Amino acid sequence: MSEIPSLEQLHALGAAQQPTYDDPAAVAAAVARLRTMPPLVFAGECDDLKAKIAAASRGEAFILQGGDCAETFVGATADNVRNKLRVLLQMAVVLTYAASVPVVKVGRLAGQYAKPRSSDKETRQVDGESVTLPAYRGDAVNGFDFTPESRRPDPQRLLEVYHASASTLNLVRAFTTGGYADLRQVHTWNSEFVRNSPVGQHYEAMASEIDRALTFMQAIGAGDPDEFHRVDFYSSHEALLLEYEHAMTRIDSRTENPYNVSGHMVWIGERTRQLDGAHVEYFSHISNPIGCKLGPTATADDALALAAKLNPTNEPGRLTFITRFGAERIRDGLPHLVEKVTAEGVDVAWVCDAMHGNTFETSNGYKTRRFEDVLDEVQGFFDVHRALGTIPAGILVENTGDDVTEIIGGGEELDELGLAHRYESVVDPRLNRVQSLELAFLVAEMLRRA
Ligand SMILES: O=C[C@H](O)[C@H](O)COP(=O)(O)O
Ligand SMILES: C=C(OP(=O)(O)O)C(=O)O
């Protein structure tokens, strides 16, 4: 890795989706403060994740990346973090047990505070008048409330991102190593889960089988390995705001290489993957495992050029292509991409983001997705890889541990009117707890067949 370019050099390349701050001195002060903060993750942990992603790209593991579309500062509470972690652990257990494959658990969490938007402005009718303000770009940038004060990009928020991420990660580390993630807890995670939900009962039956298997292993003296009592859980976010990400980049004392120490894995979004743009340049200099979104407009040549720039040494586990075509387009669009990238010998993990190509707005004004489309895109992803003899390495979902009503369909048969009941996402809709588990059981089935 060569020396990391300065922030000025990166901005000179043209950085999409950045806030327009009105106080450069305050931005400089926030960046300077961030540069003095301790790392949130260690480079060695990032390398461990890279090795696990490499295993997934060989079909020896499966990546489950999930969490909020956009974290919020008020949402960084113990209950929220526990609920998010719990649903991901439950999904991981379902995938591991039903498909007999190790699951690499990566949260969209502890840093997922900045959002790219389709439009820089938002217009609403306020007291009969049309009011236009800067779009909400995530708590890292501005507030969700529709007032001029709240929507003003505030660089102080970058420091809040650091602190909210630190406390979230601290709690996640406590939960995952301190007993909460013990396999003996599989029932407890389900305890207050809707008992009359078929997926809750399905999970309960599986949890009992796991319990029996653990008891059997103990009875025959097959040991009680550490892996039964703790889990490896990694953080990830879209590294969108150059000021924050650059300030959180440090030289690893072991290797002298730069790492982004604000999350284990960071990804480049669909709107910022320009080959000659600031984000791709920045990412080409850090040593973390990285993701790059590829939407329906991405060509095979785009993918090859990105891989050459982002992973010139073809290091296994370094680069994950996260495809987000949408259910309607995946079966037509993905094969050519995978075929050409594979034919060129490019080492990449293919992950299916089954969310971002399936968003639409309902007649009553809610941004939503259909559970059936999400499922269909994952099925299409598995079908394409099976046909090509390549490896489906994982899925990315936007989900929450709470019983929100943001995505229509699924076993609960949530309809458009039902969305109003508990719609809490500040940007894109998330699978609720029941839908997340349903998806896990269905994907486990696909994985088992694959
Ligand atoms: O999460 C992804 C994007 O930030 C989001 O889909 C953009 O939403 P918008 O089209 O409402 O701006
Ligand atoms: C913004 C996101 O996705 P995309 O870049 O694929 O639109 C996201 O995953 O939060």
Automatic annotation (TrEMBL):
Cofactor binding description: Binds 1 divalent cation per subunit. The enzyme is active with manganese, cobalt or cadmium ions.
Keyword annotations from UniProtKB, A to Z: Amino-acid biosynthesis, Aromatic amino acid biosynthesis, Cadmium, Cobalt, Manganese, Transferase
InterPro entries in UniProt: Aldolase_TIM, DAHP_synth_2
Domain of life per record: Bacteria
Pfam families, per the entry: DAHP_synth_2 (PF01474)
Pathway: Metabolic intermediate biosynthesis; chorismate biosynthesis; chorismate from D-erythrose 4-phosphate and phosphoenolpyruvate: step 1/7
Binding site for Mn(2+): 69, 356, 398, 428
Enzyme category, top tier: transferase
Family statement: Belongs to the class-II DAHP synthase family.
PANTHER family the record matches: PHOSPHO-2-DEHYDRO-3-DEOXYHEPTONATE ALDOLASE, PHOSPHO-2-DEHYDRO-3-DEOXYHEPTONATE ALDOLASE 1, 2
Official protein name in the record: Phospho-2-dehydro-3-deoxyheptonate aldolase
Organism: Nocardioides antri
